[in-house]
Design a protein that fits this description.
CATH class of the largest domain: Alpha Beta
Structural class: alpha/beta
Number of domains: 2
Radius of gyration: 20 Å
Number of helices: 9
Oligomer: single chain
CATH topology of the largest domain: Dihydrodipicolinate Reductase, domain 2
Helix content: 25-40%
CATH superfamily of the largest domain: Dihydrodipicolinate Reductase, domain 2
CATH architecture of the largest domain: 2-Layer Sandwich
Strand order of the largest sheet: 8-9-10-7-11-12-13-14
Distance between the termini: 25 Å
Bound molecules: NADP nicotinamide-adenine-dinucleotide phosphate
Largest sheet: 8 strands, mixed
Amino acid sequence: MDERAADRPLRWGIAGPGRMAQAFVKDFAHVDGAVPYAVGSRDVARAQAFADEFGLERAFGSYAELCACPEIDVVYIATPHPQHKAIALEAIGNGKAVLVEKAFATTLAGAQEIVDAARAQQVFAMEAMWTRFQPVVRALHDVVDAGQLGTILGVQGDLYAQRDFNPDDRLFAKDLGGGALLDLGVYVLQFAQDFLGSPSEMTVRGTLYPNGVDAQAGMVLSYDSGALATLAVSLQSMGPGRMVVMGDQGWAEVKPRFHHPDRVVVHRKGVTPRTLALHPDGTGYSHEIVEVNRALREGRLESDIMPLSDTLAVMDQLEQALHAVGVKHPDQPL
Ligand SMILES: NC(=O)c1ccc[n+]([C@@H]2O[C@H](COP(=O)([O-])OP(=O)(O)OC[C@H]3O[C@@H](n4cnc5c(N)ncnc54)[C@H](OP(=O)(O)O)[C@@H]3O)[C@@H](O)[C@H]2O)c1
C-alpha cells in the first residue's frame, strides 16, 4: 500500500460489475476509511453504468486498465470463478492488494499461483469468504474456544439453494465454472475447515445436470481428531441451509441460513438453550471490507480469520470433490 494512503480512505477497484458487485458496493456505506473508487468491465458502457449508479469516480473498459490504475489500493474480483486467477495475477503484478470472490480459483494449482504471486510481490490477498466475518460466526468461535461445547467432534450442514437451470447463467454454464460445488460447496467446506481444520479423508457423491456440471453433492470428511463432517450442497433442491457444530458437551446451530446468519443457538447438557443474536452491518459484506482495510493499514499480507492456507486447503477439497463427481473446470485467461 502506498505510504501516502495513511491519510486518506483506501481506494477500491471493482472487477466485474455483475450481481455480486452490485450487492457488495452498497456495503461501503457501513465502512469507514474505504471508498469504491473505480470499476472495470469488458465493456466500458457497462462499467460506466455501474459507476454512475453507485457514484464511483472511474470506469474502465478492460480489467487490465483497472488493475494498472495507480490510484487504486485494492482490487475486488467479482467475475465468474475461471477468470479470478487471471485478474488477480494482473492486479498483484501491479502491486495491488486483492480480495478474490469465492471460489478463489477453479483449480488448486490456480489458487496456489495467486498465493505465490501475492507472496512474491509482498501484497495482501484474501478470499472473499464473508461468512467467516459474520458477528455470529465470531461469537460461535468464542463459545467453542471457551469449551462450552466440550470436545468438538462434528460439523453437519447443508447449503441447498434452488435455482432454475439456465445453461447460459454463470451458475450453470460449464465454461463459466458453473455447478453446486464451486458456488456452494466452498461455503460448507470452509465452515468445516474453520472449526475442524484439514481432513485426513473425504468421500463424495454427486449428481450432474445434462450439460455435465454438478447439481448436487454429498460429502463426508474424517479428521485425525476423530471428528466427522457431513456436508451437502444443491442448486436443484430447496433446503434449510443449516449448520451445526457438535461437541461432547453440547451443540450450536447457526441460523437462519448459516452463510447469512443473525443468531446462533447454543445447546448445552443440562442447560436451557441460549440464543446469541448478532446482526451484520449492511448486507454483511462490510465485515470483510473492514478486515481488508485493517490488514492493509497494519501492513499485514493476509487475514488471520481467512488465511490463505485455509483457502488452499478448501480448494484442494473442492478439486477432489469435483474429480469425484466427474467435473473439471480449468482456470481461464481473460
Ligand atoms: N459472497 C457472496 O455472497 C456471493 C454471491 C454471489 C456471487 N458471488 C461470487 O461473485 C462472483 C461473480 O458472481 P455473480 O453472480 O456476480 O456473476 P454475474 O452476475 O454473472 O457477473 C459476473 C461479472 O463478471 C464479468 N466477467 C468477466 N469475464 C467474464 C466472462 N468471461 N464471462 C462472463 N462474465 C465475465 C462480467 O462483467 P463484464 O461482462 O461487464 O466484463 C459480469 O458482470 C463469483 O465468483 C461468485 O461465486 C459471491
